[in-house]
Amino acid sequence: MTLQNFCLKESEFGTLAFSSRKEMNDLTTGTGRNRKVTHHCYFLYGQKHAGGLDVFVPVDAVVPALEHDQTVRLVNPVVEGLAQRSDGGGIINWVVKVDTLEAL
């Protein structure tokens, strides 16, 4: 089975505010010496995401300096499924990838 990416309307994310940069959650490829960061993780929150939302931005994207509680807009958000094997089958983690974040 193939996982398909899908896009959500901006209104489905609601108003989001910047909380912090989460370096421990950056997306990577490879292992050991060959490990490379592909996307930086930014933690956002809003009324529709009370528990917070990890948003991933490519390493080469330009992201403005953000202040805590600053309102942001997601540029071209795509929700992508990352599949992972487990003992009893598989696990799918849904992640939000964007081209960049814009400060409002």
From TrEMBL:
Q: Which domain of life is it from?
A: Bacteria
Database matches in InterPro entries? DUF961 (IPR010365), YdcP-like_sf (IPR038620)
> What is a single Pfam family found in this protein's UniProt entry?
DUF961
What is the name of the protein in this document? Answer: DUF961 family protein
Which species is this UniProt entry from? Listeria booriae
